[in-house]
Each structure stands twice: as structure tokens, then as C-alpha cells.
Automatic annotation (TrEMBL):
Catalytic reaction list: Couples ATP hydrolysis with the unwinding of duplex DNA by translocating in the 3'-5' direction
PANTHER family registered for this protein in UniProt: ATP-DEPENDENT DNA HELICASE Q1 (PTHR13710:SF105), DNA HELICASE RECQ FAMILY MEMBER (PTHR13710)
Sorted UniProt keywords: ATP-binding, DNA damage, DNA recombination, DNA repair, DNA-binding, Helicase, Hydrolase, Isomerase, Metal-binding, Nucleotide-binding, Zinc
GO MF, one annotated term: DNA binding
EC number: 5.6.2.4
SMART domains listed in its UniProt record: DEXDc, HELICc, HRDC, RQC
Domain Helicase ATP-binding stretches: 22-191
Naturally occurring in which organism (per UniProt): Candidatus Enterococcus wittei
Family: Belongs to the helicase family. RecQ subfamily.
Cofactors named for this entry: Zn(2+); Mg(2+)
Domain HRDC as annotated: residue spans: 510-590
Record-given protein name: DNA helicase RecQ
């Protein structure tokens, strides 16, 4: 296995979880692998595809990415193809014939194709080494991207005469979703390999109490040489941000379901091939994207769940280099997600679950403790503070807000702890709302106590007290507030409450520009254009960084660089070595290689 890993992928050692998953597959055991984005999930099925007789079928949710996935596999020396609706009938028939004669080691298809009668019939003819189900959380109704076609696949698997080995892979699955995947695919309980959800190179940050447009433009100017994705919740907001940022001269594209298929494909390719630096998109973009040099992901609006957020945020820094995931948090954006749930055709019980997910996502926006720790806890993983997120590194001054907190808690107690945050805010602001008069709350001693602060600031304080555990919000669409035990301690004067000042824009932490790295990156762009593949398929930024640092002098030294395998050495070795040698001669250096 290690020999194949080095020859085709250029790595000396497996990453955490990869070897364990591959060993299960080689022993013909079904397995569920939960690994963070960028941890090398694809190797878990690509390497067995090289080692096992027959074809490995990869079920991938987005047909728009299949060509890139196949191009990347072929670059690694794996015989791969795809079958989807972009092909005409003649081409599909040709590929079926090639599969009948075992010309391919790897086949990418969509779940909708997998359950078609003609494909099921074809599978019964083939020698199938493995079926890899990518983005496996889509099979669970409790997952954030549930697709009925994924669920139907489970039934099809049981009809195959010789049921192949199954590997299910995902980056985001709560304990409930993981349990669902195993149950639906009949994966043994102990064949669940989870490497942890932490991304050591990803710095999480929440920005609130700031003008979002101003912050975004300033951030993009400061980090103008970096590639990034900006997510918004609606097509309308994507279009607005796209026009705004174009006016500022940014190299930007847009992506959402309202564009034509051609527009979406063109924008996606321009971004993947580094012709565009930025992309503003709805959540329609990103699943399965393998662009490794995305340095930041900014959520302009809050998504509907922590699963969705962490999966989208995880698209930054897949090459292992320092990257950022920033949430521009504004309370009013929560209503957009609630509207989506209200308009959905889900059953009431499922809607309540969705509202609970929005509540957890909202808390993430207000917490002052470790952001990574909060997310890992949501996925059932205990951890210490990460010491790298925006909250952990936050050295802003703490401002005591104990008195204001006591006013909020006291007011809620006097209201009977049977109302939501909006009404509580209005009472504290001294609103003349008719409901307040009807309930007689204008007679409370706490009525109007915080009116000098304004409704927005009061609401932010209430949300902060919820995220800090001083207030408890019940489940459902219309949560009711209760004072927690910690809140009682604040009321009694036994605990003080502190809050921090607003944040400023910081430059993304990167190494000083390396001129050799820039030269190698330029070469990579040219080679990728000639081959018709995205630049990261040639070599990742991390591999080019190591080349520019080590400056290998010969093929053997180049082969020691992570990401350089025998296949890529044969293809690109000489030309990269010549650029490195020329640069070293022009910049005479005494560095030891």
C-alpha cells in the first residue's frame, strides 16, 4: 500500500484514518469514514481502485465536478471515467462497453444514475471492486443535504448478486447522522472510523457589530492576492454582492441555481482554473470542490446549521496552509433561514429539528469562548480550546455588563419567563407596543430600564446572555426564554458578566511572498492550461511551497517532496527542476539543499 501511495500520490505516509479505512476495504469490510475536509478522503477509494481487480464506483453528488475529478485521477495514473447527463447516448454506450471489458479502474456517477434500471442491469455484469459513497450524510434525513436518491441507493445495493464492499465518506456528520448512515447501509457498528473534526490550519472567526459591506471590501483589499469564496443565503443577495464587488474592481464570479447551466459551468471553471480569484455563491456551490488553494471562506449571511457552516468553511485551506473561515454575523439574517424552514414541505417534527439547528448556529455567532471547541462539541467531540480562532486570540478589552445583564434577567423573571426575546427586548426598551399594554408589562419596574441603549443593542445583549448560558431558549419556531442556574447567580450578584469590544479587519497570516514560489505557480498555470485541467491538479500550493523552500536539484530530491509521485515526476519533473535550477543560478545562494 505504501508503495502505491508514494508512486501515485507522492506521499511517504498515510494521513490519520486513511490506512485504517483502506485496510477495512482490503479485508472486504464495509466501513464509514468521517474525516475533515482536506484530510484526503479520496485516497481511501482511489488507492483500493489501483490495488483491487474490477471497477470502483464512486457516487458523487454533483455532475458538474465529475470531469475535474476524472482529470485529477488520470493525472495520478488511475484509469478513470464518468457517466452523466452531459454525455450523449453514443458516448454513454461507448463507456458502458469499455466498462464491460474492464478498461477503467474508477467510475464516477451521480446517485440518480445509480438507481436507474439500465445502470443496475450493467452493474450486475461488472466485477465491482468497491462502491464509494461520497458526501454520505446526504443519505440521512437528519443530514443537512438530504437527497432521496441517496436513500434509494441502499435498496439497490441489496439487489446486486455479489454485494460489493461499501465505503461511505463524509466530513460532517453528527452522532445521529452517523448512526443513520450505518443503519441504512448495514455498516457494522465497529467499522466507524472518525479522525476528529478539528482543522489545525483553519482559523475560525466571527465578526459582528460591524457594517458588513465595509468590512468585506476592506478585507478583500487587504487580502487581494488570495483566492476565496463568499457565501450568501439568497440568489438576490449573491447578485447584489457580485455587482458591488465588481464595481470595486475585484476579480469575481457568481454562482447560484438561477443562472443557466452554461453560466454556472463557466463561472465554476474560471474559479477552479484561477482565472477568477473570488466567487460569491449560494450553497449551490462547493460540494465536492477540490480546489486546494482557497485561502478564505466568508459567510456574508448565517447558514441554516453548523453542519452546513463547517462543511462550507472547510473548503478553505485544503492544501494544509493557513486559511480563514469568517462569519459576518447579523441577527436579522436568522429570519432568512427561518423563512426557508417555514416554506419547506418538511413534516412538522423535521421543521422543529431545523429550528433547533438554527438556534445552535445563532449561538455560535454570539459565543465569546473557543469557536472550534463549540463546533467539535456539537459533533460529539470533546476538546481543549484551539488557541487559534478569533475568540481564543482575542485580546480586546473586556467590558463589564453585569448591571445590564441583571436588568435583562430581572425583567424576564417579572414577565413570568413565558415569552420570547423580541417581547423582552421591547419591554426593556420601553416600547409602546399594544401587546405590552395588554399584558400590563408597562407597569413593571424593569419597563424601559435599557431604553437609552436602543433595541438593536438590547437584542444583542439578550443573544449574548443566551450564548453564555445565562438564559435558556426552548426548542421550536417560537422559543421562550428562561433564566438558567448561571443566570440566577448573576441576579444574586455572585457572578459578573463581561463582554468584548468590536473587532477590526486583520490581514490573513501568510508567509512573505516567495519569488520562486510565484515562478513555480506561473509555470503550473501554463502547464494546467495546456493540459486543460485546473492548476491544483498539477501540484498544490503546499507542494510548490515545499519545492521553493527545499529547491531540489535532481529527480530523486524532487520525489521526496510531498505531493510528487512517480506519475507526476515523469510528467512534470524535468520542467520544474529546470525552473528551480535557473532561479537558483540567477539568485546565487549558499543555502544547503
Amino acid at each position: 500500500m505504501n508503495e502505491l501511495l508514494k508512486k501515485h500520490f507522492g506521499y511517504e505516509h498515510f494521513r490519520s484514518g486513511q490506512k485504517e479505512i483502506i485496510e477495512k476495504i482490503m479485508n472486504q469490510e464495509d466501513v464509514l469514514g468521517i474525516m475533515p475536509t482536506g484530510s484526503g478522503k479520496s485516497i481511501c477509494y482511489q488507492l483500493p481502485a489501483l490495488a483491487l481487480p474490477g471497477v470502483t464506483i464512486v457516487v458523487s453528488p454533483l455532475i458538474s465536478l465529475m470531469k475535474d475529478q476524472v482529470d485529477a485521477a488520470n493525472q495520478l495514473g488511475i484509469s478513470a471515467t464518468f457517466i452523466n447527463s452531459s454525455l450523449d447516448g453514443y458516448e454513454v454506450a461507448q463507456r458502458f462497453r469499455s466498462l464491460d471489458t474492464e478498461e477503467y479502474q474508477l467510475l464516477y456517477i451521480a446517485p440518480e444514475r445509480f438507481i436507474m434500471p439500465d445502470f443496475i442491469q450493467a452493474m450486475q455484469r461488472w466485477r465491482i471492486a468497491l462502491i464509494a459513497i461520497d458526501e454520505a450524510h446526504c443519505i440521512s434525513q437528519w443530514g443537512h443535504d438530504f437527497r432521496p436518491s441517496y436513500l434509494q441507493m441502499a435498496n439497490v445495493l441489496e439487489t446486486l448478486p455479489n454485494r460489493p464492499t461499501i465505503v461511505a465518506l463524509t466530513a460532517t456528520a453528527t452522532l445521529q447522522v452517523a448512526s443513520d448512515i450505518k443503519r441504512l447501509l448495514n455498516i457494522p457498528e465497529n467499522n466507524h472510523i472518525q479522525t476528529g473534526f478539528a482543522r489545525e490550519n483553519l482559523r475560525l472567526q466571527v465578526i459582528k457589530d460591524q457594517k458588513k459591506e465595509q468590512y468585506l471590501v476592506e478585507y478583500l483589499k487587504i487580502n487581494k492576492d488570495q483566492s476565496g469564496i463568499i457565501y450568501a443565503s439568497t440568489r438576490k443577495e449573491v447578485d447584489r454582492l457580485y455587482q458591488l464587488l465588481k464595481k470595486f474592481g475585484f476579480s469575481i464570479g457568481r454562482y447560484h441555481g438561477g443562472l443557466s447551466e452554461k453560466e454556472r459551468t463557466d463561472m465554476q471553471e474560471a474559479f477552479l482554473y484561477d482565472r477568477l480569484q473570488l466567487l460569491v455563491a449560494t450553497n449551490a456551490f462547493g460540494m465536492g470542490i477540490n480546489k486546494s488553494n482557497i485561502r478564505f471562506v466568508i459567510h456574508y449571511q448565517i447558514p441554516g446549521s453548523l453542519e452546513a457552516y463547517y462543511q462550507e468553511a472547510g473548503r478553505a485551506g485544503r492544501d494544509g496552509l493557513p486559511s480563514e473561515a469568517i462569519l459576518l454575523f447579523a441577527p436579522q439574517d436568522i429570519q432568512v433561514q427561518k423563512f426557508f424552514v417555514q416554506q419547506s414541505q418538511r413534516e412538522e417534527a423535521q421543521k422543529q429539528k431545523e429550528y433547533d439547528k438554527i438556534k445552535m448556529m445563532t449561538e455560535y455567532g454570539y459565543i465569546e469562548t473557543c469557536l472550534q471547541q463549540y463546533i467539535l462539541s456539537y459533533f460529539g467531540e470533546k476538546s481543549a480550546s484551539c488557541e487559534r480562532c478569533g475568540n481564543c486570540l482575542d485580546d480586546r478589552e473586556l467590558v463589564e455588563v453585569t448591571t445590564q445583564a441583571q436588568m435583562v434577567l430581572s425583567c424576564l423573571k417579572r414577565m413570568g419567563e413565558n415569552y420570547g426575546k423580541q417581547l423582552l427586548m421591547k419591554v426593556l426598551a420601553g416600547s409602546r407596543d399594544q401587546k405590552i399594554k395588554t399584558l400590563g408589562f408597562e407597569k413593571l419596574s424593569t419597563y424601559g430600564l435599557l431604553k437609552k441603549h436602543g433595541q438593536k443593542e438590547i437584542l444583542q445583549l439578550i443573544e449574548y446572555l443566551i450564548s453564555g448560558g445565562y438564559l435558556i431558549a426552548t426548542s421550536g419556531e417560537y422559543p421562550v426564554l428562561k433564566v438558567s442556574e448561571a443566570g440566577v447567580h448573576v441576579l444574586m450578584g455572585e457572578t459578573k458578566v463581561y463582554k468584548k469590544e468590536p473587532k477590526k479587519v486583520e490581514q490573513l497570516a501568510t508567509e512573505e511572498t516567495d519569488r520562486l514560489f510565484d515562478a513555480l505557480r506561473e509555470l503550473r498555470t501554463d502547464l494546467a492550461a495546456d493540459a486543460g485541467v485546473p492548476p491544483y491538479v498539477v501540484f498544490s500550493d503546499a507542494t510548490l511551497k515545499e519545492m521553493s523552500h527545499n529547491r531540489p536539484k535532481d529527480r530523486l530530491a524532487l520525489l521526496q517532496i510531498k505531493g510528487v509521485g512517480q506519475s507526476k515526476l515523469d510528467k512534470y519533473g524535468e520542467i520544474f527542476l529546470s525552473v528551480i535550477q535557473k532561479f537558483s543560478e540567477e539568485h546565487a545562494t549558499s543555502r544547503s539543499i
